[in-house]
């Protein structure tokens, strides 16, 4: 075993529900020269039991979802920390998600890709999917509130394959410091 620590790279595809994040991630995998993991948050959420002996209150459900997402952040960090490259499709729809990822992914090479799509197209896709609560996509358009990124792709009139090709082609040209580093540096000094 090597004593040199090798950390994997992380590409975080951020966008609202139905913007095409998962499709882009899947289309990226065969285009990347090295082996990469696609780790969607839905896969981690899908591991949770769906049958409960009791009904959860709204507060309990919110806390369970928060714990799931906190765990997801750490799954990504663990994979990358072991030297694996990881493509993440995950909406930064709550400020704490980004704050936690900035802490958990300190020292990692993270490329933040905003996946954009028109509101009209998001609504159309959401209706066509039928597996998301109506209005979720529009409610998540605040995923860009942090105001920084390394790359932007727009799926309104472009296929996932076209957007994946653009991301892969542009990855090596993204300059440092990257968005996660800039966002981390812009935070007020934190006391522990």
UniProtKB/TrEMBL annotation:
Active site: 42
Annotated ATP binding sites: 15-22
Any Pfam family: CPT
MF GO annotations: ATP binding; transferase activity
The protein's name: Chemotaxis protein
Native species: Lentzea guizhouensis
């Amino acid at each position: 075993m090597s004593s040199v620590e090798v950390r994997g790279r992380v590409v975080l595809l951020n966008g609202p529900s139905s913007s095409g994040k998962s499709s882009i991630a899947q289309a990226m995998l065969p285009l990347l020269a090295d082996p990469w993991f696609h780790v969607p948050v839905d896969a981690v959420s899908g591991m949770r039991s769906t049958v409960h002996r009791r009904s959860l209150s709204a507060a309990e459900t919110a806390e369970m979802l928060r714990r799931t997402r906190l765990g997801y952040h750490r799954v990504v960090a663990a994979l990358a920390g072991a030297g694996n490259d990881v493509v993440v499709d995950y909406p930064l729809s709550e400020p704490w998600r980004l704050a936690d990822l900035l802490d958990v992914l300190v020292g990692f090479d993270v490329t933040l890709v905003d996946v954009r799509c028109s509101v009209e197209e998001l609504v159309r896709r959401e209706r066509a999917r039928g597996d998301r609560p109506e209005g979720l996509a529009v409610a998540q358009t605040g995923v860009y509130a942090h105001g920084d990124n390394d790359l932007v792709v727009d799926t309104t009139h472009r296929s996932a394959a076209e957007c994946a090709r653009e991301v892969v082609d542009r990855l090596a040209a993204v300059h440092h410091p990257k968005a996660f580093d800039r966002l981390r540096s812009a935070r007020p000094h934190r006391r522990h």
